[in-house]
Write a structure and sequence with these properties.
This protein is 87% helix and 0% strand. The protein is mostly helical and 68 residues long. Helix 1 runs antiparallel to helix 2.
């Protein structure tokens, strides 16, 4: 269902944003090793969020019977 895909994409975006905020906090406290790992995790979440957003777009186009 397209709504589920949109919800999942939104959750992935929220996870990426959270990981970015936590990484920024660690950078601010000069914990650069942890910050680097958290930044990497944020990037992974952001990539997955993008993929889920693309999937949601495709499913919405199909559901609306419109070309992509």
């Amino acid at each position: 269902m397209p709504g589920d895909t949109h919800r999942i994409a939104a959750e992935m975006h929220e996870r990426a944003a959270h990981a970015h905020r936590v990484a920024a906090t660690h950078h601010g406290s000069e914990d650069h090793l942890s910050a680097h790992e958290l930044s990497k995790q944020a990037l992974d979440h952001a990539r997955l969020a993008f993929e889920k957003s693309q999937e949601a777009h495709r499913k919405s186009a199909v559901a609306a019977d419109k070309p992509e």
